[in-house]
């Protein structure tokens, strides 16, 4: 006994030392703030910041004066951090789960963590801070004016200034069970819970403590919950009820509201126990009301802040209001200051005995005075209080104190010696109604017997009819309606791995949907669909199989080309596919030994059920017949139908069945061993290093040599004790003697034992293992999602780049956002047209591929020129090249300038360009430019194009068609715009030119820019240009003839043409044709 007391004393001293260490660290730490005040910012709750900050500041000032009185140079400081929940649907504490953690992290990053945290008052937020398993490992204590919930009980870092829910629960347990002069012992009660939206934070957690099935109140009191106001009103007006005692939390207004909606009077024996803990008005306005006559109120004792001028209820001078929550924050600061002061004094005078708590909670067992009265904290830091039980006197109709309950002793002290109670006899009513119309024991027995006879008769009738129906149906079979099958609409992202799986496997070839369930159609060897009687019985037997680890068979369906069996679809594919896919299902994070054992266990359970059913044997068991659903549950398929499906003869077939055809349960055990070897090794079926030929493996299994038997490689080296047990099980299952192989019941028990032994280790529980596996699987999924997301983003970016190459940026964005493009009118744009002179002749003497290559070379260079100007390429049609500027982005007068510069750059390029397949043949282009209004938009849905409409487009095209080679034909409107700019372009007046559909108009040749030397080709004269068409062919033939000299494979037909052309004498052998004698006279230039 002495030793036990010594150990207890040591424990108390260690706890006190830990608590003192927290205080010493605060005194030595030189913190920026000694208190971090955490609370709501909503301005609508009693513990919101506007009501609290002034109270905390007042407490700091009071503590400073007390320190000065003791000669202590230490002052409390505080910072204030709030969280706002007004943006949530459920405001206040209901949505403040992680805000306290977020504030603590912010304080840590700002290095502003103090010695203690005042608040939060919300249970959800506090629990995240102080729970040892879910919450943070706090180094500072928390003083909360709230945090009432049971989840915050017994936390060493938490001190609760206001009485928590466990104190209320203890009060009601003892008060209900006590026998007092004015009450009998109670055992039954109703507890009314209001909706979450209508209840306060304290009432929510107080009633929650009474409702929780595992809490003390539910274990000690037979209580029934009432969760709606309608159910409360129904019980109040009937004698057929569980109890006369109704416990609710709220205010007198809630009692008045319930009674005002009653349609019939309340039974006189009814007693309400109202938990109105934080309402001091019962001491201020003592006059009761008619509705409160049958109500006992449980509230806090009278507060200090309701007495005298020092604690004003409404201190308007500082703009704050006092309530129990505000007083709690104020008194929490006083408590912290008092404990620190006691610690400082004890360090100065070690021999002095002070009120330092002997608890692991630095504030446990403390007592002090504050706004809320006299505080006494228990060893866990929770406040003990003398709750006042108030009743309405039948004599005075005023509130009077009936009794006081001391939570530190859990005892009731009677105050009113002879209370004037409203109930019968002047005492509180019994918990059970007096006139309960209960059934006697004989009535109950008769009712039970009658119901039993009726139920037994109904079951017998149903059983008889079911058996009769089954006997008739066993010999009948009909195909399912093909119209009931629809395509399987899988709303999945078609990733590469999925497409590879569909490409490599026939398992996914006939998938569809039947009765909203995914199914797979498997071809049966019954082309006519007329089953024999034996086959019908077998199919009906298969139809009745329904087990978790067996695929469901739904029936057969006949289409024009064949008959198919309809089976449940497991969308992850076969087990063989899962084992092969080491990327999606890696060994180290997914397919570890525990998971492999669970896969083997699934197969063993399915086979155990199958062997005990009417089917009795599988006969075709292999890894491709084991399929996996989306929940990674392994199911067996292709069982039964022995008269329709022939037994297999493959690597999974037992040796006795290789020697003599047939099926047996022991043969299934052998097949299971081969599958288990695949699962454990993650190798190909029947893997051995000595042999890789399947035919040779079958031969050596069927005809063993010597004393040994040929089996897959299975080594015990480097394996653990559990893995050795598993390997021994596999070897027993593929034993040569079928009688020595275990059955599936034994296999199931052995695997269960191995799996259980893996979780008997002290280092990791089953739940720890499950959580670890889920975390590993989550990380694997995250990597896969990141990889697939990056692939998707790359493809999206490629598509966006392609769209921006085909359409203007604003148009693409409008199509992506709204799906359409509104047409737009542009007041002034400049349009450029060009085509290749003699393009028809060039095509005549070129192959189609040469024409494509030629245009590609030209347009690629044109496109690179466009990149240096603010222009938009509209389209190319054959040899025509169309460009516009001033749309879709307006650019003032720059559109004409950019088109002019671009046209000059293109002429400069043409001078140096050479056709690859026709060397020596120059490239001549005509250019036309015109400015004016234009409409633009996207027309149609198929292959949308950004098209231009208006007379300006037609005029620009006419300018090009009426121009001359190597000339930039410019309209008067374009020249006028260029004259408005600062660029000095050079041009020549061509004169009046007839434009089809427009009549005559003044046009110009654009020749350059003053001060900027363009390397432009010299255009031909008008007279030389007339001979272009007739001489171009001869030049091309001459170029081709020169190429023939270098290439002996020149076509004979082409040579014949060349000789015919030469005989005509039109081709000059001494040089270029005459039209290439260009005009070189310097024309008179006009500067813009």
Overall geometry: extended
Q: Which homologous superfamily in CATH is the superfamily of the largest domain? A: Nucleotide cyclase, GGDEF domain
Assign the CATH architecture of the largest domain.
2-Layer Sandwich
Number of helices: 31
What is the makeup of the main sheet? Answer: 9 strands, mixed
Helix content: 25-40%
Kindly report the oligomeric state of this protein.
single chain
The domain count comes to: 5
Radius of gyration: 48 Å
Mean pLDDT: 80
Report the β-strand fraction as a percent range. Answer: 15-25%
| Structural class based on helices, strands and sheet pairing | alpha/beta
Q: What is the CATH topology classification name of the largest domain?
A: Alpha-Beta Plaits
CATH top level of the largest domain? Alpha Beta
The stretches of 5 or more residues where confidence is low (pLDDT under 50) are 1-15, 307-319, 491-508, 1048-1088
Total number of beta strands: 34
EC number: 4.6.1.2
Protein name: Guanylate cyclase
GO biological process, one term: intracellular signal transduction
Membrane topology: Single-pass type I membrane protein
What does this structure look like?
It comes from Tetraodon nigroviridis (Spotted green pufferfish). It is a single-pass type I membrane protein. With 1088 residues, the chain is of the alpha/beta class. It folds into five domains: 211 residues, Rossmann fold (3-Layer(aba) Sandwich), CATH 3.40.50; 174 residues, Response regulator (Rossmann fold, 3-Layer(aba) Sandwich), CATH 3.40.50.2300; 73 residues, Phosphorylase Kinase, domain 1 (2-Layer Sandwich); 177 residues, Orthogonal Bundle (Transferase(Phosphotransferase), domain 1), CATH 1.10.510.10; 232 residues, Alpha-Beta Plaits, CATH 3.30.70.1230. Helix content is 39%, strand content 17%. The strands form seven sheets. Strands 26, 27, 28, 29, 30, 31, 32, 33 and 34 form a nine-stranded mixed β-sheet that branches. Strand 17 and strand 18 form a beta hairpin. Helix 20 packs antiparallel against helix 21. It is extended. The relative contact order is 0.04. The N terminus and C terminus are likely disordered.
